[in-house]
Amino acid sequence: MSSYAEDTSYAKLREVKAWTTKIDLYYENNQEHQCLGGLKTRYLIKPDMSNHISLVYTAYAAGHIVSLSYSCGDDGFPWVVGVRVKQ
Q: What is the DSSP secondary-structure string of 21-38?
C-alpha cells in the first residue's frame, strides 16, 4: 500500500456489499478514487477491520454522511484505512 492516504469528501453511501475477502463501498454521488485499478467509484475494506466496518454499517443504516481515507494497494485498488462520520 502507498504510504499516504487520500481522503474523500463527505457524502452518503448508496451501496455496501460484503464478501468473504472484502467489503465494497459506493457513494451516492459516485466519488472517484485516485488509484489505478478497478471501478473508479468502488472503495474496499478488508474484513479484519472490524471497527471500520461497524462504523460504516452504522452510518449507512442511519443515513449519515461519511468520508473515507484510503491508500492505493499494490493491486491498484483503494483500501480504506480510516472512516469519519457526520450527522
A: S-EEEEETT-PPPSSSSS
Q: What are the distances in angstroms from CA 22 to CA 35, 78, 79, 80, 86?
A: 17, 12, 9, 11, 24
Structure pTM?
Answer: 0.89
Query: Which own/partner contact pairs does 25-28 have at CB distance under 8 Å and 24+ positions apart?
Result: 25/56, 25/68, 25/80
| Residue that has been written with the C-alpha cell 448508496 in this structure | 14
Which amino acid makes up residue 3? S
Strand partners for 70:
6, 80
At 7-48, the pLDDT tens digits run 999 999 999 999 999 999 999 999 999 998 778 999 999 999
